[in-house]
Design brief:
This protein has eight helices and no strands. It has 144 residues and is mainly α. The protein has two domains: 73 residues, no CATH class; 69 residues. α5 packs antiparallel against α6 and α7 runs antiparallel to α8. It is globular, with a radius of gyration of 15 Å. The N and C termini lie far apart (40 Å).
Length: 144
């Protein structure tokens, strides 16, 4: 398991480093290749190995790597649902939080995502309430 975590760490860091490349065409092609490779070795929903992606969503750079991986996948593993919702809630840029909530709506539906957001609106800290309220816009828009 450690070797697979090392693999994801290496791929994630390389993906992030490519964001600083002056050659955007090269960087975009390299990032697509990395995402394809990672998607082919992604663990199943019940695997503890998915914890790496949950942790990556808490990292300012690696969270974008995790988002790109799961944009490519057809479904978001249930084990990562709450991690993606939390990443969306805590994303300060309200135009970017869509990237985290979109896979949740696509896989689990607007009703399930809204139920989760309502929990944060009713029980969360002020920052969580604010983030959850802002996300309602995207949930409604994505469910059309």
């Amino acid at each position: 398991m450690d070797s697979l975590k090392d693999y994801w760490n290496d791929k994630g860091r390389l993906f992030c480093e490519l964001n600083d490349s002056p050659n955007k065409n090269f960087a975009n092609n390299a990032k697509r290749k990395i995402i394809g490779e990672v998607c082919s070795s992604l663990p199943k929903n019940n695997s503890k190995e998915l914890e790496w992606f949950a942790k990556a969503l808490e990292d300012e750079s690696l969270k974008w790597f995790a988002v790109e991986v799961f944009k490519k996948k057809k479904a978001l593993p249930k084990k990562l649902f709450l991690s993606f919702v939390k990443a969306a809630i805590y994303e300060e840029d309200i135009s970017l939080n869509r990237n985290f909530i979109s896979p949740c709506v696509k896989t689990f539906g607007a009703a399930e995502v809204s139920k989760c957001l309502n929990f944060y609106i009713e029980n969360g800290e002020s920052l969580e309430k604010k983030g959850a309220i802002e996300l309602k816009y995207w949930v409604d828009k994505l469910s059309l």
